[in-house]
Design goal:
The protein is mostly helical. Helix content is 54%, strand content 10%. The strands form 2 sheets. Strands 3-5-4 form a 3-stranded mixed sheet. A two-stranded parallel sheet has the order 1-2.
Length: 125
């Protein structure tokens, strides 16, 4: 079993320590990424596991429309992430994406790595 900040973050979400905000665009991207042969082999993912995880994301998250109105990032795919955070009235955007992390904040939303966010969660206990 793999452990690390991302796994700990998933556990915190499952324990309802925070509300996950997502959008149809982001859910489609997660599905595409998890369907890549390289990741399926690395993490030993089966079709049924991927489908259960996607179902959980759809059911147990706040879904927003995710309409990108203005370009912000160098990578247009990152704009969808920022819009999702704004539409969901997020306080934090958790990412490992350097193009987002360098912003540090966007419209009052702090942009943190999983590790830094987990440190904040532990302090709030």
């Amino acid at each position: 079993m793999r452990r690390g900040a991302q796994a700990e973050l998933l556990d915190a979400w499952r324990d309802r320590r925070f509300l996950l905000v997502t959008s149809p665009v982001l859910l489609n991207e997660v599905e595409e990424v998890l369907s890549q042969a390289r990741l399926r082999q690395k993490y030993h993912l089966r079709d049924d596991q991927i489908e259960r995880f996607l179902t959980l994301l759809r059911i147990d998250s706040l879904q927003v429309v995710g309409n990108v109105q203005e370009p912000v990032c160098r990578d247009p795919d990152d704009d969808a992430i920022l819009v999702c955070a704004v539409e969901g009235h997020g306080r934090y955007l958790i990412t490992g994406d350097h193009d987002l992390l360098v912003l540090k904040e966007y419209r009052g939303i702090r942009i943190l790595t999983a590790r830094h966010y987990l440190e904040r969660l532990h302090l709030e206990r």
